[in-house]
Amino acid sequence: MTSPFRIACFGDSLTEGYGLAPDEALPVVLEQSLRDRGVDARCLNFGVSGDTAEDGLRRLDQVLEADPDGVILAFGANDCFLDEPAEDVESRLALLIEAFRKRSIPVLLVGVNAELNPDEDYRASFEAVYPSLAERYGLPLFPDMLAPYQGDPSLTLLDGLHPNAAGVSAIGRALLPLVEELATTAAR
Predict the structure, then answer these.
(1) Closest of 185, 32, 53 to residue 126, by C-alpha
(2) Which of 2, 40, 54, 104 falls 20 to 30 Å from 115 in CA-CA distance?
(3) Would you say residue 125 has pLDDT above 70?
(4) pLDDT tier at 116 (50, 70, 90 boundaries)?
């Protein structure tokens, strides 16, 4: 019997499942959805609340040691919140992507919008990071992890920022086609 396709879900609180039961976190939701579709996959939770792309670089070895078959790379919400310069975020994400490429580990890049940032120029430069990286590295891109739940109070925790279990399910449904593609193309 072949072992399951191992996907490292590498990001921040949106990946980790901030404020939720462990079985409501995005990696668990994705794993169950993939299995429901006949894809033998294991989604590993490498989400840490509050992490930025720079923190991701510090944790990179931990992810590589897990020897994943694919990676969902989802940093940016905290970078934006902290007003990290868009060019710094892009260069840090590029370093992460290059580390996975060096090991022939396919990456699904997941972006976030900068809607809550009041600076219009910053929003534009920040939101351009993800399409730019996807084009440069030929990566599949899910442009906005926040879009499936943002602005709908029935899908957020009381803070209005993080998804509740229903919000995570909405993210999972939206991400699923790209995650399934990641698993099937990388398994070839």
Answers:
(1) 53
(2) 54
(3) yes
(4) confident
